[in-house]
Amino acid sequence: MRARATQGPLSVHAVAGTYVVLVGINVREESPLLNGLLGFAIHKTSHTTNKQGWLPGIKKFRADGNGPHPARLSSSRDQPLQTFLWGDYGAQAGHAYTYRVVPLYGAPDALTEGEPLEVRVTAESESRGKHAVYFNRGAAASQAYARRFGNRPPDRVANPDAYPWLSRGLEEALLGFIRQARGRDWALRAAVYEFQYDTVLDAFRQAADGGADVRIVYDAKRGEGKPRVRNERAIARAGISRLCTAREANNSFIAHNKFIVLLRRGEPVAVWTGSTNVTEGGIFGHSNVGHVVRDASVAGQYLEYWRRLADDQPAADLRGWADRKTPVPRRRRTDGLVPMFSPRSSLEALEFYADLMDGARSSVFFTAAFGVNPLLRRVLAKNKPYLRYLLLEREDKDNEDDPDIALYKGDRENLMAVGSHLTDDVLADWVAKNFATEELTGKNKHVKYIHTKYMLIDPLNRDPIVVTGSANFSNASTKNNDENMLVIYGDTRVADIYLGEFMRLYTHYRFRAFARRAERDGTPPQKLFLSPDDSWMKPYYRPGSTKYQERLLFA
């Protein structure tokens, strides 16, 4: 949901996803309101729970006497937010909120309030409508986890709260989707890559024991590092071998899908898709999304695809079928929802994604778990008059000066955050004084941070495009592997949910990259302290700067 309020030269634009509300603030250039502005306080009222209070921040004035520390968060009324974009990451799905934005003036020890402006929004429900979208926490190595659970792995936390906190509804939604299949009228058809989390496998078994028709195709390719052995051990533990079919063709490729089709009385009614593998790491570790589409036509397309996977058809046969049945939508589709399956006979689909990125009008937001494909790099190398945000698992090479990385770092409008966490070797003294060190859960071996595969084109416009699914925007995921993607046109609700989650993780990892850069420079970060005057605003009003563009984009 989006809401905007304007009062003279001050405006506030709120974009509400499910668990994130982005508050974009703007003051018109050359307005007297900018003179002496020390920042903003944001007061939040929940109309659902009747709770209210000032949103907190980490930064403080030096005169406060205490350095910044996430365990000592400060009210924005006392330590203002010196930014024009703030994310409330404590929202709850379906709850209604009013945000009162208050300009603050005066001196650090004697702040005075300017005229406030209010905006009211309701956070999106995860499960309402055609699309139900569920993101896990995706940031186990965080200050919040360190505070709550002392950096202990979730299975070593004394109370059971760690797993639900990390899942943030993703496990519950996946189990709920499967448990809809109650009795003989229902059926499930699943295609999975890593299939090892006992609780989910047990849910499939319970559905079958209750009379539902359950069939599962799983990756059973042979070779080192492939999940066949772990999958089959878990299948045996759950006692569901009778329900499962091995996908063994194309041993050089992988059966990388993660989807489930729900049928009632033989007719498809919905499909679960997204990036989440059925493992502890997939659900409780690195970032993932589960995306339900309640559309009989789309679910039917997934069912037809599943039948070919269940027949263990080789890639040579599937390529032509996928091209014919899910052609690249070279013209914008009016139906708003386009599935695209792999393997395909060419890189046309990947070229299509590059064209979408190249044709953006105001912004691009993109996650890449395994680096940036050359087709997309070439687009990112083009100088564009708008911001493109990249959220990466890691840089393409260990060497930061690698020319491939330099290719898309060359445009200052490309803003990049890379997965990382605060450890003892990152500004050891500074971290120990100001922050808790962070530990990963140990549930993910190869992809530790960013596992999602989605691209947002102009998400803040009235006609956004969301591309999401299992494919890593790579040559292999397009031509060789079993994969599925969805192209969603014009759905601002879906775009708002994805954008909020993107910015939550982007902000999280952007700060950690900032800390690592400071460590390399050998100087503790100074920007965590607030400016005692209005000089903090200069980059936000310097035409062409990224902060200038971000202020206008979100406000």
**What portion of residues belong to β-strands?**
25-35%
What global shape is seen?
globular
Distance between the termini: 15 Å
Determine the fraction of residues in helical runs and give it as a percent range. 25-40%
Instruction: Could you tell me the CATH topology label of the largest domain.
Output: Endonuclease, Chain A
Mean pLDDT: 90
Oligomer: single chain
Tell me the radius of gyration: 24 Å
Briefly note the structural class of the backbone. alpha+beta
The CATH fourth-level homologous superfamily of the largest domain: Endonuclease Chain A
The second-level CATH architecture of the largest domain is 2-Layer Sandwich
Number of helices: 15
Brief descriptors of the model:
555 residues, alpha+beta, Immunoglobulin-like, Endonuclease, Chain A, 3 domains, seven-stranded mixed beta sheet, 26% strand, globular
Walk me through this protein's architecture.
The structure is a single chain. The chain has helices at 143-149, 162-167, 170-179, 198-209, 228-238, 280-284, 296-310, 315-325, 348-358, 374-380, 403-409, 428-434, 475-479, 492-521, 546-554; strands at residues 2-7, 10-16, 21-27, 39-46, 52-54, 56-57, 74-75, 85-88, 96-107, 110-113, 117-122, 131-135, 186-192, 213-219, 244-247, 259-264, 267-274, 289-293, 337-342, 363-368, 387-392, 414-418, 454-457, 465-469, 483-489. With 555 residues, it is an alpha+beta fold. It has 3 domains: 2-122, Immunoglobulins (Immunoglobulin-like, Sandwich), CATH 2.60.40; 131-328, Endonuclease, Chain A (2-Layer Sandwich); 341-535, Endonuclease, Chain A (2-Layer Sandwich), CATH 3.30.870.10. A 7-stranded mixed β-sheet has the order 12-18-17-16-13-14-15, with helices on both faces. Strands 19-25-24-23-20-21-22 form a 7-stranded mixed β-sheet, sandwiched between helices. Strands 4, 5, 9, 10 and 11 form a 5-stranded antiparallel β-sheet that branches. Helix 10 crosses helix 11. The chain is globular.
